Protein backbone atom coordinates (compact mmCIF):
# COMPACT_ATOMS: atom_id res chain seq x y z
CA UNK A 1 0.00 0.00 0.00
CA UNK A 2 1.17 3.52 -0.72
CA UNK A 3 2.29 6.03 1.86
CA UNK A 4 -0.16 8.78 2.77
CA UNK A 5 1.00 12.39 2.52
CA UNK A 6 -0.09 14.71 5.32
CA UNK A 7 1.46 18.13 5.02
CA UNK A 8 5.23 17.65 4.70
CA UNK A 9 5.05 14.20 6.29
CA UNK A 10 4.57 10.68 4.95
CA UNK A 11 2.59 8.06 6.82
CA UNK A 12 3.44 4.47 6.01
CA UNK A 13 5.63 1.44 6.59
CA UNK A 14 9.29 2.29 6.99
CA UNK A 15 8.50 5.77 8.29
CA UNK A 16 8.71 6.74 11.97
CA UNK A 17 5.19 6.94 13.42
CA UNK A 18 3.27 10.15 12.83
CA UNK A 19 2.59 11.35 16.38
CA UNK A 20 -0.58 13.31 17.04
CA UNK A 21 -1.25 15.38 20.15
CA UNK A 22 -4.98 15.31 20.89
CA UNK A 23 -6.16 18.51 22.58
CA UNK A 24 -9.77 17.47 23.16
CA UNK A 25 -11.25 19.47 26.06
CA UNK A 26 -7.93 20.14 27.78
CA UNK A 27 -8.09 23.78 26.71
CA UNK A 28 -10.43 24.40 29.66
CA UNK A 29 -12.49 26.89 27.63
CA UNK A 30 -9.49 29.18 27.23
CA UNK A 31 -8.17 30.02 23.78
CA UNK A 32 -4.90 31.13 25.37
CA UNK A 33 -4.52 27.71 26.95
CA UNK A 34 -5.46 26.03 23.67
CA UNK A 35 -2.67 27.89 21.88
CA UNK A 36 -0.26 26.97 24.68
CA UNK A 37 -1.12 23.30 24.10
CA UNK A 38 -0.30 23.78 20.41
CA UNK A 39 3.09 25.18 21.40
CA UNK A 40 3.66 22.33 23.85
CA UNK A 41 2.90 19.76 21.13
CA UNK A 42 5.37 21.41 18.77
CA UNK A 43 8.04 21.67 21.46
CA UNK A 44 7.57 17.96 22.26
CA UNK A 45 8.29 17.04 18.64
CA UNK A 46 4.80 15.96 17.58
CA UNK A 47 3.92 16.23 13.91
CA UNK A 48 0.15 16.44 14.27
CA UNK A 49 -2.28 18.43 16.43
CA UNK A 50 -5.90 17.32 16.63
CA UNK A 51 -8.94 19.10 17.99
CA UNK A 52 -12.63 18.22 18.00
CA UNK A 53 -15.39 19.94 16.04
CA UNK A 54 -18.76 19.61 17.72
CA UNK A 55 -21.44 21.25 19.76
CA UNK A 56 -23.41 19.56 22.55
CA UNK A 57 -26.54 19.71 20.38
CA UNK A 58 -24.68 17.98 17.55
CA UNK A 59 -24.04 15.04 19.87
CA UNK A 60 -27.05 14.52 22.14
CA UNK A 61 -30.15 15.93 23.84
CA UNK A 62 -30.16 18.28 26.79
CA UNK A 63 -31.74 15.74 29.12
CA UNK A 64 -31.06 14.20 32.50
CA UNK A 65 -33.22 11.18 31.84
CA UNK A 66 -31.47 7.95 32.86
CA UNK A 67 -30.38 7.10 29.30
CA UNK A 68 -28.50 10.40 29.08
CA UNK A 69 -26.55 10.15 32.36
CA UNK A 70 -22.87 9.09 32.48
CA UNK A 71 -22.33 6.01 34.62
CA UNK A 72 -19.27 3.79 35.11
CA UNK A 73 -16.89 5.47 32.67
CA UNK A 74 -14.26 7.95 33.86
CA UNK A 75 -14.73 9.07 37.51
CA UNK A 76 -14.36 12.69 36.37
CA UNK A 77 -17.48 12.26 34.21
CA UNK A 78 -19.63 10.44 36.76
CA UNK A 79 -22.99 11.98 37.52
CA UNK A 80 -23.02 14.37 34.58
CA UNK A 81 -25.44 14.21 31.73
CA UNK A 82 -24.00 13.67 28.28
CA UNK A 83 -25.02 17.22 27.39
CA UNK A 84 -23.19 18.63 30.42
CA UNK A 85 -20.09 16.60 29.62
CA UNK A 86 -19.97 17.75 26.01
CA UNK A 87 -20.55 21.35 27.09
CA UNK A 88 -17.30 21.23 29.07
CA UNK A 89 -15.48 19.48 26.24
CA UNK A 90 -16.22 21.24 22.97
CA UNK A 91 -13.95 23.64 21.11
CA UNK A 92 -15.76 26.78 19.87
CA UNK A 93 -15.89 27.02 16.10
CA UNK A 94 -14.36 30.50 16.15
CA UNK A 95 -11.21 29.08 17.81
CA UNK A 96 -10.46 26.69 14.96
CA UNK A 97 -8.82 29.21 12.64
CA UNK A 98 -6.39 30.63 15.23
CA UNK A 99 -5.54 27.14 16.48
CA UNK A 100 -4.86 25.92 12.93
CA UNK A 101 -2.81 29.05 12.22
CA UNK A 102 -0.67 28.62 15.35
CA UNK A 103 -0.13 24.98 14.51
CA UNK A 104 0.96 25.78 10.96
CA UNK A 105 3.35 28.45 12.26
CA UNK A 106 4.89 25.82 14.57
CA UNK A 107 5.28 23.18 11.87
CA UNK A 108 2.34 21.03 12.98
CA UNK A 109 -0.36 19.53 10.77
CA UNK A 110 -3.62 20.51 12.49
CA UNK A 111 -6.87 18.72 11.76
CA UNK A 112 -10.01 17.69 13.58
CA UNK A 113 -12.55 15.06 14.54
CA UNK A 114 -15.92 16.09 13.15
CA UNK A 115 -18.95 14.95 15.12
CA UNK A 116 -21.50 15.61 12.42
CA UNK A 117 -21.64 16.13 8.68
CA UNK A 118 -22.14 19.84 9.26
CA UNK A 119 -18.83 19.82 11.14
CA UNK A 120 -17.11 18.48 8.01
CA UNK A 121 -18.76 21.23 5.98
CA UNK A 122 -17.37 23.82 8.38
CA UNK A 123 -13.90 22.29 8.46
CA UNK A 124 -13.77 22.31 4.66
CA UNK A 125 -14.02 26.11 4.79
CA UNK A 126 -10.73 26.01 6.75
CA UNK A 127 -9.13 23.56 4.28
CA UNK A 128 -8.75 20.95 7.03
CA UNK A 129 -6.09 18.54 5.67
CA UNK A 130 -7.45 15.30 7.18
CA UNK A 131 -10.35 13.92 9.18
CA UNK A 132 -10.30 11.74 12.27
CA UNK A 133 -13.42 9.73 13.09
CA UNK A 134 -13.68 9.03 16.83
CA UNK A 135 -14.44 5.55 18.13
CA UNK A 136 -17.89 6.56 19.32
CA UNK A 137 -18.71 7.72 15.77
CA UNK A 138 -17.25 4.78 13.83
CA UNK A 139 -20.66 3.08 13.50
CA UNK A 140 -22.12 6.05 11.58
CA UNK A 141 -21.52 5.47 7.85
CA UNK A 142 -22.95 8.86 6.83
CA UNK A 143 -20.27 10.75 8.75
CA UNK A 144 -17.46 8.50 7.49
CA UNK A 145 -18.66 8.89 3.90
CA UNK A 146 -18.88 12.68 4.18
CA UNK A 147 -15.29 12.85 5.45
CA UNK A 148 -14.07 10.42 2.79
CA UNK A 149 -15.73 12.36 -0.03
CA UNK A 150 -13.38 15.26 0.65
CA UNK A 151 -10.62 13.09 -0.85
CA UNK A 152 -8.43 13.75 2.17
CA UNK A 153 -6.90 11.20 4.55
CA UNK A 154 -9.45 9.59 6.85
CA UNK A 155 -8.20 8.26 10.19
CA UNK A 156 -10.69 6.13 12.11
CA UNK A 157 -10.37 4.90 15.70
CA UNK A 158 -11.62 1.33 16.03
CA UNK A 159 -12.74 1.26 19.67
CA UNK A 160 -15.61 -1.20 20.23
CA UNK A 161 -15.73 -2.15 16.54
CA UNK A 162 -16.09 -5.80 15.56
CA UNK A 163 -14.91 -7.26 12.25
CA UNK A 164 -18.16 -6.43 10.49
CA UNK A 165 -17.88 -2.82 11.67
CA UNK A 166 -14.27 -2.62 10.48
CA UNK A 167 -15.03 -4.04 7.05
CA UNK A 168 -17.96 -1.66 6.68
CA UNK A 169 -16.00 1.46 7.58
CA UNK A 170 -13.19 0.52 5.19
CA UNK A 171 -15.74 -0.16 2.44
CA UNK A 172 -17.49 3.19 3.03
CA UNK A 173 -14.21 5.09 2.64
CA UNK A 174 -13.05 3.15 -0.43
CA UNK A 175 -16.44 3.32 -2.13
CA UNK A 176 -15.89 7.07 -2.52
CA UNK A 177 -12.64 6.39 -4.39
CA UNK A 178 -10.58 7.46 -1.37
CA UNK A 179 -7.75 5.05 -0.55
CA UNK A 180 -6.18 7.25 2.12
CA UNK A 181 -7.35 5.23 5.12
CA UNK A 182 -5.68 4.73 8.49
CA UNK A 183 -7.34 2.66 11.21
CA UNK A 184 -6.23 3.25 14.79
CA UNK A 185 -6.34 0.35 17.23
CA UNK A 186 -8.14 1.82 20.21
CA UNK A 187 -9.45 0.73 23.59
CA UNK A 188 -12.33 3.02 24.50
CA UNK A 189 -11.82 3.19 28.25
CA UNK A 190 -10.43 6.26 29.97
CA UNK A 191 -7.74 5.55 30.99
CA UNK A 192 -7.17 2.21 29.28
CA UNK A 193 -5.20 -0.64 30.84
CA UNK A 194 -2.31 -2.18 28.89
CA UNK A 195 -3.79 -5.65 29.41
CA UNK A 196 -6.88 -4.56 27.45
CA UNK A 197 -4.96 -3.08 24.54
CA UNK A 198 -4.28 -6.22 22.43
CA UNK A 199 -1.60 -4.69 20.26
CA UNK A 200 -1.08 -7.89 18.27
CA UNK A 201 -4.21 -6.78 16.43
CA UNK A 202 -2.19 -4.06 14.64
CA UNK A 203 -0.34 -6.23 12.08
CA UNK A 204 -3.33 -8.57 11.78
CA UNK A 205 -5.68 -5.69 10.97
CA UNK A 206 -3.18 -4.22 8.51
CA UNK A 207 -3.04 -7.51 6.59
CA UNK A 208 -6.77 -8.19 6.92
CA UNK A 209 -7.97 -4.91 5.39
CA UNK A 210 -4.79 -3.94 3.49
CA UNK A 211 -4.63 -0.52 5.08
CA UNK A 212 -2.35 1.47 7.33
CA UNK A 213 -2.88 0.90 11.05
CA UNK A 214 -1.84 2.93 14.08
CA UNK A 215 -2.80 3.37 17.73
CA UNK A 216 -5.04 5.74 19.61
CA UNK A 217 -3.52 5.29 23.06
CA UNK A 218 -5.46 6.02 26.24
CA UNK A 219 -3.06 4.17 28.54
CA UNK A 220 -0.78 5.96 30.96
CA UNK A 221 2.92 6.21 30.12
CA UNK A 222 4.88 5.47 26.95
CA UNK A 223 5.30 1.69 26.96
CA UNK A 224 2.19 0.80 24.96
CA UNK A 225 2.94 3.35 22.23
CA UNK A 226 6.52 2.13 21.92
CA UNK A 227 5.33 -1.47 21.66
CA UNK A 228 2.81 -0.44 18.99
CA UNK A 229 5.62 1.20 17.02
CA UNK A 230 7.54 -2.07 17.04
CA UNK A 231 4.44 -3.87 15.76
CA UNK A 232 4.17 -1.49 12.84
CA UNK A 233 1.89 1.32 14.01
CA UNK A 234 2.25 4.21 11.54
CA UNK A 235 0.32 6.71 13.69
CA UNK A 236 0.34 7.26 17.45
CA UNK A 237 -2.31 9.51 18.99
CA UNK A 238 -2.11 10.66 22.62
CA UNK A 239 -4.05 13.24 24.61
CA UNK A 240 -1.96 16.22 25.72
CA UNK A 241 -2.55 18.64 28.59
CA UNK A 242 -0.35 21.29 30.14
CA UNK A 243 -0.82 19.87 33.65
CA UNK A 244 -2.98 16.93 34.77
CA UNK A 245 -3.57 18.74 38.06
CA UNK A 246 -5.64 21.29 36.15
CA UNK A 247 -8.33 18.64 35.74
CA UNK A 248 -10.84 18.72 32.93
CA UNK A 249 -12.81 15.92 31.27
CA UNK A 250 -9.72 14.34 29.68
CA UNK A 251 -7.00 15.58 32.02
CA UNK A 252 -6.63 12.42 34.10
CA UNK A 253 -5.51 10.27 31.15
CA UNK A 254 -3.59 12.92 29.21
CA UNK A 255 0.17 13.32 28.92
CA UNK A 256 2.00 16.36 30.20
CA UNK A 257 4.48 18.07 27.83
CA UNK A 258 7.64 16.45 29.20
CA UNK A 259 5.99 13.02 28.97
CA UNK A 260 4.94 13.68 25.39
CA UNK A 261 8.48 14.67 24.46
CA UNK A 262 9.70 11.41 26.02
CA UNK A 263 7.12 9.44 24.05
CA UNK A 264 8.18 11.08 20.78
CA UNK A 265 11.84 10.25 21.42
CA UNK A 266 11.15 6.65 22.46
CA UNK A 267 8.84 5.91 19.53
CA UNK A 268 11.33 7.31 17.05
CA UNK A 269 14.17 5.31 18.61
CA UNK A 270 11.99 2.19 18.47
CA UNK A 271 11.32 2.81 14.78
CA UNK A 272 15.03 3.27 14.10
CA UNK A 273 15.88 0.13 16.05
CA UNK A 274 13.69 -2.06 13.83
CA UNK A 275 16.11 -1.69 10.92
CA UNK A 276 16.22 -4.72 8.59
CA UNK A 277 16.96 -8.42 8.93
CA UNK A 278 20.75 -8.44 9.23
CA UNK A 279 23.47 -10.87 10.33
CA UNK A 280 27.17 -10.34 10.81
CA UNK A 281 28.92 -7.17 11.96
CA UNK A 282 27.24 -3.92 11.10
CA UNK A 283 29.20 -0.95 9.83
CA UNK A 284 29.00 0.51 13.32
CA UNK A 285 30.54 -2.66 14.78
CA UNK A 286 33.64 -2.73 12.58
CA UNK A 287 35.78 -0.97 15.18
CA UNK A 288 34.64 -3.45 17.82
CA UNK A 289 35.91 -6.48 15.90
CA UNK A 290 39.37 -5.84 17.33
CA UNK A 291 38.08 -6.62 20.80
CA UNK A 292 37.05 -10.17 19.90
CA UNK A 293 39.29 -13.14 20.65
CA UNK A 294 41.75 -14.61 18.12
CA UNK A 295 44.80 -16.86 18.09
CA UNK A 296 48.05 -15.30 19.32
CA UNK A 297 51.58 -16.57 19.80
CA UNK A 298 52.26 -16.31 23.55
CA UNK A 299 55.83 -17.68 23.64
CA UNK A 300 58.73 -17.00 21.29
CA UNK A 301 58.65 -19.65 18.54
CA UNK A 302 61.68 -20.68 16.45
CA UNK A 303 61.51 -21.39 12.71
CA UNK A 304 60.24 -24.94 12.22
CA UNK A 305 58.98 -25.26 15.81
CA UNK A 306 55.55 -26.83 16.16
CA UNK A 307 52.63 -24.82 17.39
CA UNK A 308 51.24 -26.16 20.67
CA UNK A 309 48.69 -25.37 23.33
CA UNK A 310 51.57 -23.83 25.29
CA UNK A 311 52.82 -21.36 22.69
CA UNK A 312 49.38 -20.45 21.28
CA UNK A 313 46.35 -19.03 23.10
CA UNK A 314 42.96 -17.67 22.20
CA UNK A 315 43.01 -14.12 23.60
CA UNK A 316 42.02 -10.59 22.80
CA UNK A 317 42.51 -8.63 20.49
CA UNK A 318 40.97 -10.03 17.33
CA UNK A 319 43.70 -9.52 14.75
CA UNK A 320 44.73 -13.16 14.42
CA UNK A 321 43.09 -16.28 13.05
CA UNK A 322 39.61 -17.11 14.37
CA UNK A 323 39.50 -19.27 17.53
CA UNK A 324 37.58 -21.97 15.64
CA UNK A 325 40.75 -22.62 13.57
CA UNK A 326 42.90 -23.55 16.59
CA UNK A 327 42.58 -27.33 16.07
CA UNK A 328 43.79 -26.91 12.49
CA UNK A 329 46.98 -25.03 13.42
CA UNK A 330 48.09 -27.06 16.46
CA UNK A 331 50.96 -29.36 15.53
CA UNK A 332 51.91 -27.44 12.39
CA UNK A 333 55.42 -25.94 12.05
CA UNK A 334 56.24 -22.26 12.05
CA UNK A 335 57.51 -21.00 8.69
CA UNK A 336 59.67 -18.40 10.46
CA UNK A 337 60.71 -17.28 13.90
CA UNK A 338 57.83 -15.50 15.69
CA UNK A 339 57.99 -13.26 18.71
CA UNK A 340 55.63 -13.51 21.67
CA UNK A 341 52.53 -11.29 21.21
CA UNK A 342 52.27 -11.80 17.44
CA UNK A 343 48.86 -12.46 15.91
CA UNK A 344 48.85 -15.87 14.23
CA UNK A 345 48.14 -15.69 10.49
CA UNK A 346 48.22 -18.20 7.65
CA UNK A 347 51.37 -16.49 6.36
CA UNK A 348 53.51 -17.84 9.22
CA UNK A 349 52.27 -21.42 9.00
TrEMBL record:
Annotated Gene3D superfamilies: Aldolase class I, Antifreeze-like/N-acetylneuraminic acid synthase C-terminal domain
Family annotation (CDD domains): SAF_NeuB_like
Domain AFP-like, first and last residues per copy: 294-349
One of the record's GO molecular function terms: N-acylneuraminate-9-phosphate synthase activity
Domain of life: Bacteria
UniProt feature coiled coil, ranges: none
GO biological process: carbohydrate biosynthetic process
Pfam family, any one: SAF
InterPro entries hit by this protein: AFP_Neu5c_C_sf, Aldolase_TIM, PseI-like, PseI/NeuA/B-like_N, Pseudaminic_synth_PseI, SAF, SAF_AFP_Neu5Ac, SAF_PseI/NeuA/NeuB
Protein name as annotated: Pseudaminic acid synthase
Organism: Hymenobacter coccineus
Amino acid sequence: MQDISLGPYSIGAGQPPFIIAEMSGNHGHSLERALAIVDAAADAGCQGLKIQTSTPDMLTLDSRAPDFMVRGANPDWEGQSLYELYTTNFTPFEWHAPIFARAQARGLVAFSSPFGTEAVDFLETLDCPAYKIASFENNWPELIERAARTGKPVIISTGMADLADLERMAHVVRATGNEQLVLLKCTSTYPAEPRDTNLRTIPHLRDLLNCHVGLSDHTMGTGVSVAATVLGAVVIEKHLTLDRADGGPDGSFSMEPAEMAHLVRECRQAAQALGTVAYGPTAAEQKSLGFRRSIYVVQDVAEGELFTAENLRVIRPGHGLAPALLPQVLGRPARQAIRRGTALTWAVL
